[in-house]
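histidine kinase
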Amino acid sequence: MFSQVLLMQVAIAAGVAVLATGLFLAPLSDQLDDQAMRRALAIAQTTAAQPQLAEELTSTPPTVGGPVQAEAERIRKASGAEYVVVMNTDGVRWSHTDPERIGDVVSTDPGQALAGHEVMEIDSGTLGRSARGKVPLRDADGDIVGAVSVGIEYDSVRARLLNAIPGLFAYAGGAMAVGALAAYVISRRVQRQTRDLAFSDIAALLAEREAMLHGIREGVVALDRGGRVRLLNDEAQRLLGIGDEAVGQPLDEALGEGRTTDVLAGRVTGTDLLTVRGQRVLVANRMPTDDGGAVATLRDRTELEQLGRELDSTRGLIDALRAQDHEHANRMHTLLGLLELEMYEDAVEFVGEVVGDHRATAEQVTEKIHDPLLAALLVGKATVAAERGVALWISDRTLFPDQLIDPRGLVTIVGNLVDNALDAVAGKQHARVEVELRAEGRTTVLRVRDTGPGIPAEQRELVFTDGWSTKKPPAHGKRGIGLSLVRRLAERQGGSARVAEADGGGAEFTIVLPETLAEPGLAPQPGLARGPRLVPDSGPPHEAAVAGSTTTKEESR
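Predicted structure tokens:
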């Protein structure tokens, strides 16, 4: 490859030198011809301006020793012209370089000069090819009595041109040598940068790179030093939701503002950075390049996060079932003791109370929440709350119809917020989580309050940021996704998500989701002075906990 590049560059330099020389010589020849003709004309004009020349032409015959011949020869020798010919109106020479031609008619037509015009030309005469200038000769009264013709040998002009050619070629050769040296230096640099690969090898590598980039299952984004998108493979386009039109655009313009843009642009540093784009959970890594740009890779962890959340839900379900099994054994032992003591009436009453507790819990939820998925979710969360020593309450303002357009989306939001609230109050005395869910026309308003430590005012926006969390990450990955997804789900429906301080301390999350109901829902009805509690602080878990497996667990605080 090195020799190919060198030869091509030398050939280009040589071609440019020859072309430049030709382009230079062509106008130079014309310039020299023009200069010679103007010089001849100037000599002719000077000769014709001699005051005595016209008088001598009309008063003396055309002889070798005549005054006209003498004056013409003086001017010819002084100017270096090839000839100075003075003629009368009939074209008869009164002077000539060759004395034998004096008295003869000139060989070229003097008509234009005798008509009063000045002439510049290159023509052939008795002395050969020459640059000529012809002017009329006037007497004292201004009448034309003849003409003056001056010639400069054309061969002398050609000689000047030929004498200039060696110098021109010397300059051209020098330029070519400099070009060859520059070509050598550039070729060596290209050789080092391409690792002495041939053009065919580079083309093959490029084809392989394109196939690899667009075939791998990992998104690749290449940026130049100005932060513009230089390359996007197919997977990156799919994960980021953009197309080929983003290539060449600044990253902020192609993706818009957000954590994903900050991560790819390098404004957020670290490895395996977590970000959310649309409904996808992505892990990004960024590697700077030597030219000032960067290459970022993106991995889709949406399915992994979903599996992790399902695993968390399964573990919670197992814990709830274990607690139920333990509590069921205690009840069976109590019932067996009552039967052995022949306290049959007490045994019947005990069984009735247990069944009534289970029925009351489910009925309290379904009276307020008519959507089956949401009701099953909260009944399941009640079991988890009871196991963790937390009271889960339904607000007295809760009244929600079975008219949801997207129940799964609201289930995800409620499940995440309740899980966060349970984590916030776990281990505290008189721990309580309150859920308020109501319809205002076609708008859904959700509030989840807890009696935990609350969220400082300066961190209330950070809790909705991808990857932000104050808790240790779970076994399956990172935290800081749940509340971000909650806000994204709300904003996708044109709603909002915010957090404030609850009455009496703790945190209160408020989610507003417009246009989520198929038709106008029921107006909120005033409830009891005290909202129904799903599970007492020490109440037993129950079978409805199985419904808790429908939620997704995302923890961000």
